[in-house]
Amino acid sequence: AKPVAKFADRATAERRTWQALTTTDAPASVPPTTTTETTDMATKTAPRKRTPSKTRTIAEKKIYKLVKENPRRANTWGHKSFAKIRDGMTVEQYLAAGGRRNDLAWDLAHKYVELR
Question: Are 63 and 110 in contact, with CB atoms under 8 Å apart?
Answer without folding.
Answer: no
